[in-house]
Amino acid sequence: MARVQLNDNQLEQVSGGAFNFYKKDDQNQCYVDGMGTFNCSADASNWVLQRMATTGAPVSTVIAEAVEKGLFWK
Hints:
Blueprint: H1 8-14, E1 19-24, E2 27-32, E3 36-40, H2 44-55, H3 59-68, E4 72-73
Antiparallel strand pairs: 1-2, 2-3, 3-4
């Protein structure tokens, strides 16, 4: 995975901001501010970080893409 530098806005959206990744009952989950809780794959957090850093896409777009790729699901 390539290293990327996040700007302040991207960092706030990913780490402790819009995307909050955690484990519950051995299942990876992510609470997304204003969007709810999603189950997610182990690779989801890295993909979200990369996506936010390289595109600056809105949170809703990142979620839609993650669902389409099978990284997030309800």
